[in-house]
## 1
Amino acid sequence: MIFVKLYFLLLFKFASARLNFEVADTAFDQQLYEDVLDAEECDRQIKFIRRNPLLTLQFADAGIRVPRGLLQGNNVDLGNYYQCLDINHNLQDMDLQGKYCSILVPMNQTFHLPREMEFSDWAQLKALQEDEELLRRMGEFDRLRSQIRIMTGVDDGSRTLPAAPLVGTVLRLSVCIPKPCTTQQAMTSFIFNLTNIGFQYEDDFCRLPNDKPWVAAHYVAIGIFSFIGFLTILSTSYDLYCTFYLKIDRKQLNTWYTSFSMYTNGKRLTYFPSGPSNLQCLDGMRSLAMAWVIVGHTFSSHKFYLNGLEGFLWLTSLASLWISSGTITVDTFFTIAGVLIVYTTAGKMDGMRLLKNLHLFYLNRLMRMFPILAAVVLLQSSFFNNMSDGPTWTVVSRLTNNCRTYWWTTLLHVQNLLNPSHLCINHSWYVAIDVQCYILSPIVLFWVLGRKRRYAWAALTLGFLAVLVSSTIYNFIYDFQSATVAARPPSETNRYMHNYYFFTLTRAAPFFVGMIFGYVLHLHRNEKVKMPWLLAILMWVFSLGVTTTIFFHTHFITQWDWDNQLADNFINSFIRPAWGAALCWIIFACVHGYGGKYLVY
């Protein structure tokens, strides 16, 4: 009970709080980046490189370029990460090694060419004026600069031109420089002092070979997984020896000795017992929902670098609706969880027994997920960061840093409340909400498991209305957008994700809908509900109409011209319980023979 009390303390005390711990960047060796910097050595190496055309070509070929497909939305040029880090020449008095860096360059900036009085070397100026070819190129550059300024909105240009499409664009460019250099020193020495013409940029990150240090999490992971592997070998050997060599009846084997056996556990994982009280249709519904989640994340995890505008236009089109509307499928799992928590618990115990065994009720649920979640957190904190590498590996390193800082909020299932912007395992927010709903469910379950049905219905109805009304008030106060893809600033999307999408209150309604239908299924556990086929058909039409409407509404709310905050608030408040109710009818119909023989069997 100590764990339960601690959990409730954290849940209610910090439900509206946000932890502002500084996430230390320990995934990469920051000290290594500082130690290699040497201004004098940098100048010496760059002079050597400029005297050797092949070396100059190596650094230039792996480095900065203007992104191709800029007008199609591509603002990223990744250079050649591996080519840059593979530059390693051990010379007689010099260790020449490449360093890959990423810089952020805003398009909306003003450039100016130096005037005559800005030159301190008049001889150099005289030579410059006599170089007609250089003057011609500078003139071309000036004209090109003017065109870029018009396109980026710095100058008005022609009044007939359309609005500048690249205003506010920030280019992410990659440069390959010698190891002891900073980006500013390297680019100034290689080219000329870019700051003198108004060129502005911001350092993003730099990378060197072998810059991922081992931390305590690596050694903990080795110790724990080595111990588990050792137990697995012993347990599997004992199981196979007794089963196939000694021919001992499996019922006589020591269950503790076979608890880590791959043979025994493998059979359990691949065997699904079926009984008269099992809700078999949930297996199909769960499988389809998982497939939808996997496909959706496969598309959303891909970065549209080369055709960002086309990718966004496709994402807001009807052709991609099966992807953009996939976020609703998460509520399928919340609904199923609500159905099962009532249906399975009501068949085992009453209200008083639930209170007496509350610790077992919690442990039974928590221990099913905790070991695998803890293992993933440990791996993300350690070896996942070392598995591969690349120019976009900062996405993985960010998760590694989050896990090393907020691992405890993930294991306590409160990361969606305390640090939603720094999730350790991105998709574990769902597990947190599911566990939180499970922990709070006995408040309603106690009455549901009693003998008086009116108390059960009152508790279920009041619980559902409390969640629905509270979430509706919350949504109307904060005015969130109603889709993960919307024509709004990124800050608004982040606010929607952190304060709505990951928030327990706004996602609990389908869980309570599932609890209500789980109680209905429990009341008719040993009987078949008979209803007129016309009513069953009408219910199917209503259910499919609701799910179809929810599916297609995503297309309208993701369009550029969508601007209806009132509709957004209603959608956020009622769409998820409506989806859960429609699915619950499908479950009910299949269990009681109104789903067709293919759905029932």
Note: The radius of gyration is 31 Å.
## 2
Amino acid sequence: MNLHQPLTVLPGVGPKSAEKYLKLGIASLLDLLLYFPFRYEDFQTKNVLELEDGEKAVIAGEVATPANVQYYGFKRNRLRFSIKQGEVVLAVNFFNQPYLVDKIELGQTIAVFGKWDKKKASLTGMKVLAQVEDDLQPVYRVVQGVSQASLVKVIKIAFDEGLDLLLEENLPTVLLQRYQLMERSQAVRAMHFPKDLAEYKQAVRRVKFEELLYFQMQLQVLKSQTKDEGNGLSMLWDEQSLKEKKASLPFSLTEAQEKSLAEILGDMRSSSHMNRLLQGDVGSGKTVVAALSMYAAHTAGFQSALMVPTEILAEQHAESLKELFPELNLVLLTGSMRVAEKRERLAAIASGEAEFIVGTHALIQEGVDYAKLGLIIIDEQHRFGVGQRRILREKGQNPDVLMMTATPIPRTLAITAFGDMDVSVIDQLPAGRKPIVTRWVKHEQLPVVLDWLLKELQKGSQAYVISPLIEESEALDLKNALALEEELKAYFSDRARIALLHGKMKSEDKERIMQDFKEKKTDLLVSTTVIEVGVNVPNATVMMIMDADRFGLSQLHQLRGRVGRGDKQSYAILVANPKTESGQKRMKIMTETTNGFVLAEEDLKMRGSGEIFGTRQSGIPEFQVANLVEDYPILEEARRVSAQIVSEPNWQEQADWQILALNLEKKEHLD
């Protein structure tokens, strides 16, 4: 028998049963062995005095009162009795299981598995155990047509047939010994049927390490291939010129900015190809670090390109770069330019006359030829796919690539989602920035808030009002925004100029409305879509978010970051009546911290990695057993050891690591 055979080779499993198991992704014997339980019920009896409220447990005791069944409503009933454990008497209730009445005899010792309610000193029963089972019972995810009992039965048959002994070890002996890990076959058996809790913990530790190590090995191999590919440029930038340029800036860099800049400049000087992610919180000064990197490339005789998602952002970046480097020739390239203007600019890029090139994805279109492109910076990295990144690199002689994002990504996820990149983090705000004051108010307080908002507008400030988000429905989003706009117009009448921005508008209309807002032609901007990341309106000082509990922490933080860009005090007002505990918690955390990294970590804990990025877009894998947040120390160790292995020359041929190379190859074929 081999593990790639179908389930039908097992005694008692016919083609019909095997077909049902396909719904769980179980096609082969190997799939069956590796289909692990997602939790265990601990059937060890507990002392009632040691139980936490809401804890599920097995309580054994003597039946102290006769069992009786009360009926109420259609097919609804409750079976009641009490048991005595030592000196404690507790009530036991079973709902809609009247047939259990025959199992309960006065004076008999029984064990009941259920949920403890401390206030009522009662147990809501789930199961009466014939005898006290002193072990862990696996609980699997199942689908219609496959019951827990039938799945456990098939898995037991597989182990009785000794199939676990056919599992080949896939971790090197040197790592098994170094981390004192169980062998694979033993760990897989203990994942399903552990002898005790200690053995189960060891098995989980082994399986998590295996999952995370192979994932990190794939990333490290990818990273080393990227570095080797046709080798990058070595840009010998001029230290003195850069020093003078930094000294001429109207502000000094923070420590975090200096550190990130040094990492980028080190990559540019080395002959390896740079593939770095620069992440910084809203307002942390990423643009200046990017600009100085571009200037360094210029002193080495190379052109730099800065690519951003929208025309309004391209214009904004071009303006700030011209202010910092008035002596350099900067060219702006966008899709909406007139043909003659575009032709002129393309000629400047091709001749090398253009030293800095700023634009939208027009920068990577057919017909854009660079004289000597050395550095490409992509702002808001997650909007550009891998394909576009590759086209960019092909535009020059494999130029260095720097990605920038203002989405604070928890280090846990940065290592994972961007494992093929080096990551620099700016986690410090420049001196003199006034922290944004965040307030959470209930809907009932809205009239007071609007009175206050009017006073702010009368002082000459501007405000954003974000209408609530309706999952997956642009039509409802729009309806909400229109209703909100009407409400605000009714309240402010001619005391404020109000405009509406929504997802169904054409790009040029959106740009025009944003431009009007920037030029103070509008006081209050109502918007459904998340306001364009990075757009700078220093005079906007109020961000009001309706039904804020519908947003995740990272989104709320991004929205809040649209204000506080000038020297005036700015405010974020969260209007929400959250019904859930997690909604209340999110509102509370927002008022307590403005640190995006702290919020991103909290968001990750509360919602999981998939929801923050949308797992599919971000390339963050779903692990079967490992959890990126809880198992971060294992992820870090797996990253460290895999980086070390891959950095060894011809590592695949070394006896210690051959098993990893072989299994990675198999994995690639499967992927």
Note: The chain has a mean pLDDT of 85.
## 3
Amino acid sequence: MHILLVASAFNSLTQRVHAELRDRGHTVAVELVPLPEGSWLETVRRHAPDLLLAPMLTTAIPREVWSAYPCFVVHPGPVGDRGPSSLDWAVQEGVEQWGVTVLQAEEEMDAGAVWASVACVVPPVAKSDLYRNEIADAALAAVLLAVERFASRSHTPLPQTTARTRPYLDQRVRRIDWDADSTQTVVRKLRAADSRPGVLDMLCGAEWYLHGGHPEDGLRGTPGQLLATRAGAICRATRDGAVWIPELRRRRTPGQPPEVKLPAVSALGDRLPPLPELPAPLEAAWPTWTDIRYREEGSVGFLSFSFPGGAMSTAQCRRLLDAYREACARPTSTLVLGGGRDFFSNGIHLNVIEAAEDPAAESWTNINALDDLVEAVLRTTDRLVIAALAGNAAAGGVMLALAADEVWCRTGCVLNPHYRLMGLYGSEYWTYTLPRRVGAATAGRLLSEALPLSAVSAHRIGLVDRVIACEPRDFAAETGRLAARSATLPGTRSRIAVKKEQLELQESREPLAAFRERELARMHRTFFDPEAPYHALRRAFVRKEKPARTPAHLVLAPPARTAAEPHPAALRVTGTDRDGISSRPDD
């Protein structure tokens, strides 16, 4: 079918729906709202879709459209749930089961007949993590079921019989009472507001939106008091414990551009009182928050990291490089990089760059720090390195993964291996790693099309070595099991020996330094050219400015496969077979 996606933003869920529908042979077009005044019907007519689908839409579809075309809306709540803050309420109230519903659009929001509904669990994580994982899995399953039912022309959607409409979850309800709220309550409120809108609060004499929350059991203080810092985060006392808050966003001053989220310590700057920096040991055994952690199981080391939004600042890149070197000093034969939940990496930290006194200089420092990390992975020849992607990756984050010997992805991953939408040529040794994996022609296509890839499509073209079908909460354990088995295979030792020979051969032909030098020469020209599009694109991205029109590359995307290729839905993705995918008919 020809399917038109209408969305308020080309966000993670819209990207996943886009990629997975294309995997199944549909042509997919995208239109971002708001559309020009009075142009809804005209725009839809121009696309002439078989179906209009709204994966993430914060405005109503006009009557003139839904009365003329079949229109489905994805609602992040179970049947009968209505309102604009569905997921926020679920997280703040601590529900354990939730769901996603695909509805027929009609006059009343979220009130249409039900085409599909899929239940999911709600683990104790932040809203944005939940949205990109359990909710996205349920939404994708519901969308595919609804599309299949619509295509059959024989399914009748069921009307909703009961409903509960809840209001927008505003700051009056989100407000934290530091004297009365328990740590658990504070964490829920913080997680329910992540990544937007944040929890508005007074801190150090100014109003800030607090983003992200992790419980701390060991530290104590007067409720509301700042106790310590760690890796750019601040620790604040509750009545029965404390919470770590990684990011802050200054409340916008009327007439001024929107403020950006920053690591809490950086955001507060000179306002921050003297506090102890309490780094957690890399192998911290107690359940305290840290963004980088290491553990071992037999001959396998696991270096996991989790940075808000997947962005990696200069400081984060350097700390991760230090941790990587420490992990490589351990007597293991296999090192798993990543493997937690949510984002793997999205490359350099555009928010920190935008807030810097000299964004060009910070861009340059940041890209060099990330290149240093990628180079360390590329030059690791004494063990097998596996990049384990539980969640999405983009730009330099994809290239960081490609530096490893193998790339393993959870089925729900979305990969964006391109840079041009930010006006960049790219670095992180991509001119070496990307063509080496997929060939020069495919590498060029990926970079020029700038479209998201599903994990299955990435596996099909050789970008990914293994696709693991599991729930988000099971990915770490499944990765550990598979890595342990891989470490015992007879061929692993010989693969490690060959790595050293291959790197020496590469260095004799064309040193890795040559790839880096050429890439960085292009990046330097862009960073230090004040007229380069990168600066305006970066500014618009971090300040969430909506484009004046839908980007041209999204207007129409053909199917991701050719007629000769197998339909991805006919393949069973597994985490147990040698190749990561087997040709068993789907149930």
Note: The chain has three domains: 2-165, 171-271, 292-546.
